[in-house]
Structure formats: C-alpha cells, structure tokens
Design goal:
The complex is a heterodimer. Chain A is an alpha/beta fold. Chain A is built from 17 helices and twelve strands. Helix content of chain A is 34%, strand content 11%. Chain A has a seven-stranded mixed sheet, with helices on both faces. The longest helix of chain A has 23 residues, at 361-383. Chain A starts with 22 loop residues before the first helix and ends in a 15-residue tail after the last helix. Chain B folds into two domains: 69-81 and 348-450, Aspartate Aminotransferase, domain 1 (Alpha-Beta Complex), CATH 3.90.1150; 84-343, Type I PLP-dependent aspartate aminotransferase-like (Major domain) (Aspartate Aminotransferase, domain 2), CATH 3.40.640. In chain B, the strands form four sheets. A seven-stranded mixed sheet of chain B has the order 2-8-7-6-5-3-4, with helices on both faces. Chain B has a four-stranded antiparallel sheet with strand order 11-12-15-14, with helices on one face. In chain B, helix 3 runs antiparallel to helix 12 (334-371) and helix 6 (136-150) crosses helix 7. The chains are: A alpha/beta, B alpha/beta.
Chain lengths: 508, 451
Amino acid sequence: MSDTSTKLSASTLTSPKIVEPTLFELSSAGRKGVSFPDPDVPRAKLPKSLLRADLPLPELAEVDVVRHYMRLSKFNYSVDDGFYPLGSCTMKYNPKINEDTCRLPGFLFTHPLQPIETVQGNLALMFTLQEWLKEISGFEAVTLQPAAGAHGEFTGVLIMRAYHRSRGDDKRVKMLIPDSAHGTNPASANMTGLTIVQIPSDERGNIDLKALKEQCDDTVFGLMMTNPNTLGMFDEHVEEVVKIVHDCGGLVYGDGANLNALLGIIRPGDVGFDLMHFNLHKTFAVPHGGGGPGSGPVGVAAHLADFLPEPLVGILEEGEEDVPPLYGFVKPAKSIGRMKAFHGHFGGGLVRAFTYIAMHGPDGLKDIAQYAVLNANYLLARLRDTYHVPYDRICMHEFVAEGQFAGSDVRALDIAKRLMDYDFHPPTNYFPLIVHEALMIEPTETENKDTLDRFADTLIKIAEEAKSQPELLHEAPHNTPFGRMDEVKAARELVLCCWLPEDYNLGE
Amino acid sequence: MTYLPHSPKERDAMLATIGVKSLEDLFKDIPAKHRFPNLDLPPALTEMEAAAELAELAESNENVHGDLISFLGAGAYNHYIPAVINHIISRGEFYTAYTPYQPEISQGTLQAAFEYQSLISALTGMDVSNASHYDGATAAAEAVNMAYAQFRGKRKKVVISPTVHPQYRAVIRTYTQGMSVEVAGDNAEANLESGPEALASLVDENTMLVIVQYPDFFGRVYDYAALIESAHSKGALVCVVANPTALGLFKTPGAMGADIVVGEGQPLGIPMWFGGPWLGFFTTKKAFVHKMAGRLVGETVDSRGQRAYVLTLTSREQHIKRERATSNICTNQGLLALASAVYMSVLGKNGMKQVAELCYHKAHYAAEQLSKIEGYGMCFPEPFFHEFVLCCPKPASEVNAHLLEHGILGGYDLGQDYPALKNHLLIAVTEMNSREDIDTLVDALSEVDHE
C-alpha cells in the first residue's frame, strides 16, 4: 500500500501547515482539566528518592480537549458516514443498541477476579455465547478468550501443536497456506516456528488440488484455509481438500474472517474443519474502533476440546426448575494455557455480539448471509463489463476486480483515491496478492440498492475518467481534507511522538 | 430482517440483474448435504426485548459502583472515569472507522494515535510507543518476542521476577511454547522477600531479557536502576511492566535505563468490564524500533503541504511481510488507546499526579489502620504504592467470605498463586475508596474472630 510514486507538490523545506495542533501544542502551563478532591485521610510521607522529577504531560481545560477531538473526528470517514466496501473487513452497520447494552453498569463495573457468585450474569452471558457460537459453526467447544482474529489464529496453531505432540507426533513442521490467504495466517504459523508452504489457487479460485496433494506427507502440521477465500469464492472442492489433509494426518484450520457469508448457510464443523476462529468485530457487528478492539473466539472439534486455553465458562452445578445453574470457570484437561490476562474481550466484544445474535435468531442470521451475498453479486453484475474480474463466477460476500485498464497508466490506488472524492471509502486494494491491481469489494448486507447503484455508477464513471482525464485520478483525492501522503518521509525521518515545546515552562 | 434495508421489490430487481431466481440460487457451490442447516438458537428478539434481557443479566451481577465496596486490584483497578471520555469515544466517526489504511480520510484516528504514542512515551520516559497491544500480559509476551528477534534467537533465557503478575507470566509461557526459550527466576520456591538484586545473579550471557514489574505484584516500589545496569553488563535487555497510575508520581522506568516498558492501560480511563477489552501499552528505545511489533504512526506531510500522519514502518507487519513479520498482530486496541489519551489529556500533568497521590495516601491510611487489628499486619516493608500484602490470622479465602457478607469485595487471595502465602491478602486502594470505606473494612475485619 505504499505510495512512493506520488510526486509531492509541496516542498519539504518549508514548514508544513498545521491543520490541527497536537494536544502538546494546545497546552498552557497551569491550565487544569478534571480535578480530584483533597484526600480525606492524613497524607503519608512520600519516598523522595523514588519520585519522578517532572511529568511532561499537556495541561488543558476540558473544553480544549473536547474541541480538539471533535475537530479530529471530522477528518475521519466511518461506517456511520457512508459506504465502506472494504474487502475482508466486513464493515457492516454497527447497531446502536449494542453500544448501550455493553455499557450497562453491571457489565462496566465488575472486576474480573470477583467471586463467581457475584458475577453470575456475566458468566451466564459467556456460557450462552459459547453455546451459540458452537451451534452456528458446528464445533464442539469454544473459547472466548482470544482478543482478535490474529490472536485466535495463534491460539489455534498452539492447539494444533499440542494435539500433535499429545500423540507423540513431533515431526510435523509444515503449515500449508493458500496463496490467497490473509498475511496473519503465515505470521501466526511462524510464531511457533513452523515452515510455511504456499499452495497455489486454480483457475476457478479454488485450492489447486494437485499442488495440495504433492505437499501432503507425514510432515504436514495442517492447512490454514479461508473459505470463502479472499477472492470471495467458496471452494468447490472443500470436502476433498479437508479429506486430503486429514488423510496425511494434518489438521484443517478455518480462518473465520469471511464467516459472514456462511451464517445459516453451512457450518464449517459439518464439513470437517477441525477448528476455526470467529471475528466478532466482523461477523457479529462489533465496531472496528479505528483499529480495535476486536474479539477472536476459537471453536474446535471434539478431539481438540481438551487443548483449549484456560479458563472456559462451564456449569458447576446444574440448575433446577426455579434455580438457575451455577456458572463458573473450568480448565480443559490438557490446556495450552492462558492467551491473555482474564477472560477475553467481555464488555466491548462479547456483550455486543451476544446482543446482536439474540436480535437475529436462526432466520435472521441466515438473512445476513443471504443479503450479504446478494449485495456482492449485484455489484459484481453491475461492474463486470467495466472492470475485469479474473475469477468470475457467482461470488459469496465479496469479489475481486482488477483496477487497471489496457493502455492506461491508472492503477488500483488511483481508483481508490478517486472514490474518496465521491464520498465513498475505497475497497481493499493490492490484496489478495494473486490479482493484479486488486480492488476487493465487500458491500455487506446492510447497504441498500440505492447506495450500491450509486457506488457502481461512480466506479463506471471513474473508469471513463481513467481514459479521458487520467491526471484527475493520479492526483486524487481532491475533495478530502487531506491529500496523498509522503510515506517515504515518514519512514525516513521516523517522527513517532511529539513533546511539550522546549520553552514551555520558562515563565514558571 | 433486523438491520436489512432491502424491500422485496428491490431484492427481486437485484436478483434479476444477477440472473438468478431466488436467494437460494446463489449458494449452489455449497455442498448440498450440509446446505442451510437448521440452527438451534432462540428466536430473534426485538430491540425492546433484547434491552430488557441484557439489563436483567447485568443486574444479576454485583458491581463495584454501589453493590460492593471493593479492595480488589491485582491487575484491574477501579478508578474514576471522567464523563468526557465516553462522549468522545462514542462518536461514530471514531468507533465505526476501520484501521487507518487510507490516511487521507483517517487523519482523526491517525493524529489521535500519534498523540497517544506521545503521551505514553512521556509517561514512561521512553523514546517510542506503538499504537497498542491487546493487554498488559500480551504486551509483556511481545517483549519476549522482540528480545528473541534482537538476538536472532542466539540467547535463549528469559529471567522473570516471581512478583510479575501471575497471569502475565502464564501468558509468556503460552506464547513461547513453540520457541526454544528457557524461563528462569519465578519458580515456586523463589524468595518473595528479596528485592531485585536476587534476580541479577540469574542473568548470564545466554539471557536475552529480564522482566520485572513496577510496582511489583505485591505493590512494592523498587528502583531497578542497579538491576538494569547489571543486566546490561551481561548484554541482556530489561523489560519493566509498569502501572501507569503509579507513573504519575514515581520515577520512570525510562530514567532507570529500561529497554522496554509495557503495561496495562486499563487504569487510564477504561472500565474494568469484567476483564476487557483493555489496552496493552508497549514502549522501547529508538534503537529497537525496527524490531518492535504492532502499528506505528509517524508524522509526515501531504501533497498540499499540510502536516499529517500515516502508519509507518509497515514493512515490519504481517500484511506486508507475512511470515517474516515481527508479530502476527493486526487488530489492536485503537479505541481504548483513544480513551486513555483523552484520560491523560483531561487529567493532564496535575490530575495524573493528584490521582497517584490520592491512591498512595489512602492505601497507606488503610495499611496503617489494618495493621492495628490484632493478628493482622503488613508482610513486607515500605515503600509501596496503592496495593500491599496483609498477613491474616486465617486463610485469606475465609476472610474474604466474611467480608463479602458485609458487602465488601476483599483483596486478592495470594494463596492461589503463591502456596506460602495462603493467609495473605493483596489489598488495593484507589481514589474511589473513601475513608469511610476503609473504616468499614477495618471494622469488618476486626469482627472476624468474634463471630
């Protein structure tokens, strides 16, 4: 995604124009924001030799801070602003009720180490969500602990490792990863020192079975498979792929990033996947928060349940007619250990996802997948005559087009930037790596036909602009508060933080 | 059709454009025998019903804002959260945006992250901070990964103080199980009374990293400068797991010479939320920036000559480098980093120090009063910050059960992690505990043996 070819009109020799000062530049010595009461106990003696000499933090009034962040917020594009067809990121609408339920005081102000008798509401919610995710995915057990998708992947790889070792099968060192995979897959596998073997895709966007078979021997640790894959294609031979890997003793890991297309359509556990992570922040409408927090629960088949991280939520005493069960924490017999402190992203992740699933039920979940796939195929149908789609068949929740035209030097990046001028967030570009100048488009189910038409019309118009006025695209965006960035300067100069001005306290 | 905007007429028009007859026709690639499973889930609730059900679940908990007086800390702290924070992080422009991969329309997120990095660097006394990790425990585990990479796997040993949070130590063990790493220093028989000097003797030429906590798990405040100097003389790096509230008052790990400072940012305006999501902060010296994991925001200019910010050094990251990345981390804790930045900026220099001092004074008052009760006493000498270990005349679990009957959430039962400390409670006191709360605790404990 680097943008090194952009010619910068502004000289780097003159000081840049400051659009919004930093908190440090806004600071004024002696100004106060939130204050606290004086102590209601006697003051204890402070250990002088251990105290810090200076605390160089800004000094601001509350109104300064509010206006600063208000101005900053207006520089952002968000799902609440408009269409955000970012492939593989599932930028669906985030329902407002979830913001309220996750902030109920009973959730906000409970300590993770409280006695279980005092947090039965939290534990009941977690237990129920484990059960729901099992039912949705077809797995036997679920951990809610992983903090994000990549964290779930790492958890999954450690579970696979523990499984092989428990069988004395230490020679398995090879993780098979299709060439269309997210970068987190090889990075997660590498964290346990596995060798990564890339498997190519065939001309229909499926895993190339011949290439897969060639790699399958008794050193195969497993396969990490995203299905539907990042081309938006459901692998037509998925059952065969799973069988080939199982036959050589490997395990099949499902990257659940694209689960939105499968809700109520098919359960990965039913097809023979051994384990999979969920992205609650994609599929179950947990907002992305400008980069997080996410939540990445992992579901596993029966033979892997003993290896899950500790703790899980279980029923310690069964309930009776008028008595609810007693929920508590349980440790799986051969647990890989703890993946993070405490119990996962409870408030921001689990409560929101629980609310979302409760409000959909089985039919509503199926609707999500069906309409996500409808929207993607509709855009594909409207765009395929203008943009080349290398893997062109009925897609799932997303598809990948090429952002380039014969005889033109316009690139996917230019198209992405030009879309901003028309008030759209661009699709994912330059991923997956197997499509040239990729534009990966995932509309999600929460967009209406008018928005999709406006987006398709705009992309068609941009394709005309690419021929008639290519400079307009090379220099885009024009209508945004900021233009293209000098990324080379950022990496070369590495200014990674700011401070109070040098003459800040001279008056004191 | 909870959040679906399609009218039947629009749906049919779209199907016609695609060239299929029904929604089901879009799923012919799905193996028929597994297609359209009947999910055994409860039927959909309306918003009104869901709101009521969630309220009932939440209310069946006993919270520490009214139901219980809390003296429980051990890695999660009940601090006052100024109202302004939730108002800012609830703006859709912030919380419904994605990772700022398109900087032209993400300057809000990017400048806020740059300022977060700056505030955390100033607080810890370090050169650079990344844009966040999942939590304090995973940030500590990433410190091990960084040290491992720094020595290209040639040094294998990590020395960890036994008074680093037990769950953080557990996470480090989980993270390193696929690496050939030896963990030393925190065995069950470790002497808990000895200071940091005891660790120095374990550091050798094979040691990549020493990890200590500041204040330590028992609340004790040590100056680690001598330990750090000694570790450096063997070529090892030192990581300090720091409590950010304490840094409002105490000397920075940066000033002591630490190479990496990590910690849990929850005390900076983030609710306890039954354990998450919170905020792992990670800082280091500029020399190590290329080995660090996670996103980094750097300053630059745009094509119009405006100062602006971008994700930088992305060649360390998984979406560029795949298996050669410094870590697999992708999603981080962006919104909570924003919450902590708002906290640090509205409290500012003055408020941060004030909160730290309030915690200190109240904890010392509590320690003094509790020590006067017959059979109870302080286990370790001062100085301590806002937590301390109270020796009890009977098992901590029994003491806590008694306190809970009086509406008090007692301290952390240290016997769970340290077999020798079965009769020991880790008591936390923050600015949220009034003198009256503390006196109530003292009264309740005075009664334990008289019932």
